[in-house]
Write a structure and sequence with these properties.
Layout: H1 2-20, H2 22-29, E1 32-38, E2 41-42, E3 47-50, E4 56-64, E5 70-81, E6 84-97, E7 102-109, E8 120-129, E9 135-145, H3 152-176, H4 184-208, H5 216-236, E10 260-261, E11 264-265, H6 266-276
Parallel strand pairs: 3-9
Antiparallel strand pairs: 1-2, 1-4, 4-7, 5-6, 5-8, 8-9, 10-11
């Protein structure tokens, strides 16, 4: 299990690091500048509340600053955390944005399924997609989803909490029983999955409690910091003590070793001398 989780550590960390940079570069290359309002409130770079029992009205303003017309086919609204998409809504809304012009489109958004999909703060993006699913424009916000703990995101956090507790228990029991490697670096690697899981649990907990959204600039330092702290703790753990030798039950047996002297053992030479000089 430890090796599997360590591999997952590398994969998720790479996804977090690599997924944090392309978005900014993509925003600069998008041919459309997008502004989004929810129930008349501008949501760009703000925190908006999404209540599953309350329908919302979304208004999108697309500005084409290029020299070519753009054709929008689809509007996608998605919430992402830890490089995973926890909810997504696709709405077919075809319209053209001529070069140098501004177009506004409004449509209702049914978010009743959100109750079983997410809870807490989640980074959310509104993307305008072309017919071949190329991103033409993006607006970012943070959604305060009023779902339940038993949603997909909530259950994900609970599962991570259980797995992390199990990993910590396994490592600490091995430490108490002196079963960890005597090599300090290897012991620190045994603590790495536990630290990584602790970081993930911390990120999800802060999100569910609506304290900090799991954005890349927040989740990456938390996860990597927790993993580093766990490795340091593993490196500083005491050296495993070897088990004490077993003591004979009668307490009188003494172990002895013999060696060869001119091809004879000490016992053989003593016996030969005794026979030569009896008494």
């Amino acid at each position: 299990m430890g090796r599997l989780i360590a591999a997952a550590v590398a994969l998720v960390t790479a996804a977090l690091v690599l997924g944090a940079t392309p978005a900014a570069a993509q925003d600069a290359d998008d041919p459309l500048r997008v502004t989004v309002t929810l129930d008349g409130q501008d949501i760009t770079d703000r925190t908006v509340e999404l209540v599953p029992t309350k329908p919302a009205e979304v208004s999108i303003t697309a500005v084409n600053r290029g020299t070519k017309p753009q054709k929008v086919q689809l509007v996608r609204i998605s919430g992402v955390a830890l490089a995973l998409t926890f909810f997504a809504y696709d709405t077919t809304l075809p319209f053209d944005v001529p070069a140098g012009s501004r177009v506004v489109r409004t449509f209702p958004l049914d978010v009743r399924d959100l109750e079983g999909q997410a809870i807490g703060l989640l980074p959310t993006s509104v993307e305008l997609l072309s017919e071949d699913r190329q991103v033409l424009g993006t607006a970012s916000t943070v959604a305060d989803v009023r779902g339940t703990v038993w949603s997909v995101y909530g259950v994900f956090g609970l599962v991570m909490l259980g797995l992390t507790a199990l990993i910590w228990a396994t490592v600490l029991i091995g430490l108490a029983r002196h079963r960890l490697s005597p090599n300090r670096f290897r012991r620190s690697l045994r603590f790495l999955p536990a630290g990584f899981g602790t970081g993930l649990v911390a990120v999800v907990t802060l999100s569910v409690l609506r304290l900090v959204p799991p954005e890349p600039e927040v989740e990456i330092p938390i996860v990597l910091g927790a993993a580093a702290i766990a490795m340091v703790l593993g490196f500083l753990t005491p050296h495993p003590v070897p088990p004490a030798p077993e003591v004979p039950a009668d307490g009188h047996t003494v172990g002895m070793t013999t060696q060869l002297i001119d091809g004879e053992t000490v016992d053989q030479r003593t016996q030969r001398n005794t026979q030569r000089w009896p008494g």
